[in-house]
Design a protein that fits this description.
Number of strands: 9
Distance between the termini: 68 Å
Number of helices: 23
Radius of gyration: 31 Å
Helix content: 55-70%
Structural class: alpha/beta
């Protein structure tokens, strides 16, 4: 797996520097606090995803350890996150737990492939409106999944669809359990106001402890209908037995799409988290190494019954704010979670479901990015379209469709913008040398010989500009006997551009019109040479700058005279 210049975990490079007792104590304290923060979230994410509390904690332990051990960021904390809840829940509903394990394993392979192909930097360029659109959509969807437990509604089966879900809720609001609603509302208030008293103590943990004790008291007093984790799941602290994944070709074909969505979502979230962390600690993460670590973590997680994992922004920031500065803090966080799992897991069964619903309501609010959503609505219409389409597709349909359509729309709009930045101008009289960097010699205006025309392409020559150029060249049957195509401002050309240019040269040849290329940069020239352009127009008709191109045009016109 060692690839030259690629396999460089931050743990190994960091520990090459002096690492003393003071550094370890700082990482130790940060790791313990992050583990305490991660515990209720891991439990909540595991349950909300349709898996189990153990699945959430085991993922936080194993994937969290691997991401810190092999990752490309000094402070990244990995584990299950709220962003995966919707997609994981959908996969379990359609393909079962075995389907989720296979999809997660495949997503890990995709992430490793992305890292090997050095796609880490490319993923960063996914348009911001898409990220905000599906993040806000996921947040609203998570909130919708928690309404039943928050209000203690007596519903046998909650539909998967967003609209169907709310229709069922409204039909069952007469079954509200007021004790559950009180516990859920109190949990939200505790989480919101705890940071005002202490930023080191996680509000979610305080809420879980207090509301669990309150629930035990209420049950002793005879309160009825308060559902706990133990009422829904059988809790065990036994070490997981390794899963053997039996993957068939049918599994691969059916689960390739959700696996790719998991991989894309994991890559985006982990690299976004690492980038945010870089800005705080003044470091620079290795995006491709981070993808490798995320890939290994997601290939190992399903083998122990875990769910997808990625870098978690909130836990990463908690790590930074409490002094963590090396991957050792993330490793300690995983070890502390493992100790909690082994010795305190049976206590989890007493946690009320309404409290976990309150935790996830706060998570969904923090994920919603409503301020960013509101700010983008003031941007150009193209950004607003991408944002709203991605948001509504995420909410009404699913994340897979939202990402695919969102990226497609963004690509089309990007192509439209690029095409608008490229323009073609026609010069038939004279060229002002003061405005032309490639003009050589004296600074007198350069006269274009009668019978010649200069067509200047300004911008990328790709398939979006092809028709525009053909329209400009539509007077092929006119008086011009020499066409000078000035390409000094063409940074690149694609295969469609080459095809378009070649067709134009062939048409000119049939009409007895000579084509001269001027100012082609080396990169574009290499593409044209590979396409046989020298043979098509003649090597002597490819000129380095406009002076030579104009002299060549005069020679051609003299020969034709």
């Amino acid at each position: 797996m060692k690839i030259k210049g690629l396999f460089r975990p931050k743990l190994f490079t960091t520990l090459k520097n002096p690492y003393g007792r003071k550094d370890f104590v700082r990482d130790l304290l940060a790791g313990i606090i992050v583990a305490i923060v991660a515990l209720p979230l891991a439990i909540a994410f595991g349950i909300a995803s349709g898996a189990s509390p153990e699945a959430g904690i085991l993922t936080a332990i194993v994937a969290g350890f691997i991401i810190s051990f092999l990752g490309g960021s000094k402070v990244q904390i990995g584990g299950p996150t709220g962003a995966f809840i919707v997609i994981v829940y959908g996969i379990i509903q359609e393909y079962g737990m075995n389907g989720l394990f296979i999809a997660t394993f495949m997503s890990g392979a995709f992430l490793i492939l992305m890292g090997v192909l050095r796609l880490g930097t490319i993923i960063k360029y996914i348009p911001y409106p898409i990220v905000v659109g599906f993040t806000s959509g996921i947040a609203l969807t998570i909130f919708a999944t928690q309404v039943k437990d928050l209000f203690g509604l007596r519903i046998e089966h909650v539909p998967a669809g967003f609209i169907d879900k709310w229709a069922v809720y409204f039909n069952h609001f007469d079954s509200v359990n007021w004790w559950s609603l009180l516990i859920g509302a109190a949990s939200i208030l505790i989480i919101v106001f705890t940071p005002k008293l202490s930023r080191r103590i996680p509000g979610s943990l305080v809420a879980i402890i207090l509301m669990t004790l309150f629930t035990l008291l209420l049950k002793r007093m005879g309160a009825d209908g308060i559902e706990t984790i133990g009422d829904r799941f059988s809790i065990s602290s036994a070490l997981p037995q390794p899963e053997v994944l039996h993957i068939s070709w049918d599994d691969i074909t059916h689960l390739a799409q959700p696996a790719m969505v998991i991989a894309m979502l994991g890559a985006i979230e982990s690299l976004l988290s690492a980038a945010v962390a870089d800005g705080v600690i003044g470091d620079r993460h290795d995006s491709n190494q981070e993808l490798l670590a995320q890939g290994v973590a997601n290939m190992v997680s399903p083998l122990i019954g875990g769910i997808p994992a990625t870098g978690a922004i909130a836990r990463t920031m908690t790590n930074i704010n409490n002094g963590g500065r090396t991957p050792v803090a993330g490793i300690i966080h995983a070890v502390v979670l493992a100790l909690i799992y082994l010795f305190f897991m049976p206590l989890v069964k007493y946690i009320p479901m309404a409290c976990l619903a309150g935790v996830l309501v706060v998570v969904s609010y923090n994920m919603s990015e409503w301020r960013s959503f509101k700010a983008i609505l003031k941007n150009p219409k193209s950004d607003i379209i991408v944002l709203l389409v991605t948001f509504f597709l995420t909410v009404i349909f699913d994340l897979t469709i939202a990402i695919e359509v969102g990226v497609l729309i963004a690509c089309l709009l990007c192509m439209k913008r690029m095409a608008e930045t490229t323009n073609v101008s026609v010069i038939s009289d004279e060229i002002d040398p003061n405005a032309d960097a490639d003009v050589q010699g004296n600074l007198e205006h350069l006269i274009i010989p009668e019978g010649a025309k200069v067509y200047e392409i300004n911008g990328p020559y790709f398939f979006g500009i092809g028709n525009k150029f053909e329209e400009m060249m539509g007077d092929m049957g006119g008086r011009a006997k020499v066409r000078i195509i000035r390409m000094r401002k063409v940074p690149f050309i694609d295969s469609t551009g080459v095809h378009n240019l070649s067709n134009m040269c062939l048409m000119c040849r049939q009409m007895g019109v000579k084509v001269v290329l001027s100012g082609v940069n080396p990169r574009v020239m290499k593409v044209l040479q590979d396409a046989g352009m020298e043979e098509l127009v003649g090597k002597e008709n490819i000129c380095s700058h406009i002076n030579i191109a104009l002299r060549r045009a005069e020679e051609i016109l003299t020969e034709k005279a």
